[in-house]
Amino acid sequence: xxxxxxxxxxxxxxxxxxxxxxxxxxxxxxxxxxxxxxxxxxxxxxxxxxxxxxxxxxxxxxxxxxxxxxxxxxxxxxxxxxxxxxxxxxxxxxxxxxxxxxxxxxxxxxxxxxxxxxxxxxxxxxxxxxxxxxxxxxxxxxxxxxxxxxxxxx
Length: 154
Hints:
By secondary structure, the protein is of the alpha+beta class. The chain contains three helices and eight strands; from the N terminus they run H-H-E-E-E-E-H-E-E-E-E.
């Protein structure tokens, strides 16, 4: 008989995600979630534009999207639902987001140590081979200040 490894409770992660105020405020929606992988969609919104003349979404919104999807990917990779805290987030902006188009963030946790998750992510408009930005991130496992039973109450 083979033991099935315990993984993070993906349904619980979805509930926690939906209770995070900045995710709700931005309208971030989980497209897919599986152990070690996550994708989130952000619909275009005029209120997120950096320059009204161009209609391009602010780079801080892209940063938030990539940090959030990478953290979700890290949380989904661990053996049980636990908090993570961003240790390092390196983002390369490759081109402006196209005005009017939704942005998709995807992340994959490619390595876990006993205390750190290593994640790669990309933001795009539907083709990950044509990225707006990509990132590499590290997350401390078991970060302080998070309690999954409080779900969004801080």
